[in-house]
Amino acid sequence: MLQSPRTYLPAAGRDWSLPLYDPIVTLLGGNAARRVLLEQAALRQGHRVLDIGCGTGTLAALIKRLHPDIEVVGLDPDPKALARARRKAARAAVSIPFNQGFGDELPYPDASFDRVFSSFMFHHLPTGETGRTLSEVRRVLKSSGSLHMLDFEGPEDGVHGFLARLLRSSHRLKDNSAGRVLSLMSQAGFADPKKVGRQRVLFGRIAYYRASVASSEAGTA
After folding, report:
1. Who is most buried in 8, 36, 64, 140, counting CB within 10 A?
2. What does the alpha-carbon distance between residue 120 and residue 62 come to, in Å, rounded to a whole number?
3. For the residues 140-165, what does the mean pLDDT come to?
């Protein structure tokens, strides 16, 4: 019996609005927020990183431009967004493999990445997939690896603004409170999950999270 294909929420909320996604995010400060996320990750030469829910590839391309000696992989379920990501990488003359797939079924071996990034993606996930996605992220991280996440704050943490409404996903933000995100990270087996920052931008409030595979005490023992 054939299984129905899995559904997903496109990067821009609707396929027709995908061409507007990059210029709007840039205009409203999303790219500057991503640069802060990269600064928090302490990337080093030889690292291998995964951008999960990479969308049109902006963050992946930025990492590769700033750190050409780092291997970057992008993953997203949306073939239209991935097509744009591949064109963006070609224009920037950087080599990035972009794979089609879902976060709760990562097509990578255990302990194969030093860093995993998630940028404005987590709130897109249906409730049943959030925990499985975090467990998969932990699985593919090395023992010294860490997850670095940027997303809209939930209604308990702040008011979501224009972009969240534009992307027609604000109804998903009700489960995006810091307490719930940190709890899910702990349940997935991460050590020391933390909300490491928050910021007010033109499209609302965003939060930064970090979670490590091993605790800081273990790393300094």
Report:
1. 64
2. 15
3. 75
What pLDDT was estimated at residue 159? 47
pTM: 0.83
Q: Are strands 98-100 and 71-76 parallel, antiparallel or unpaired?
A: parallel
Say how many C-beta atoms besides its own lie within 10 A of residue 16's C-beta: 9
Say which CATH number the domain at 110 has: 3.40.50.150
Task: Please check whether residue 150 lies inside any domain of the structure.
Answer: yes
The type of residue at 186 is: S
Q: Quick check: 184 and 193 in contact, CB under 8 A? A: no
Poorest-pLDDT segment among 30-44, 107-121, 158-172, 190-204: 158-172
Task: Give the chain's domain count.
Answer: 1
pLDDT of residue 124: 81
Give domain status of residue 186, yes or no.
yes
Mean pLDDT in the chain?
A: 83
User: What's the CA gap between 90 and 209, in Å, rounded?
Assistant: 30
Query: Does 40 fall in a domain?
Result: yes
Domain extent, residue 184, equals 15-219
Burial 26-58 (b: 16+ CB within 10 A, else e): eebbbeebbeebbeebebeeebebbbbbbbbbb
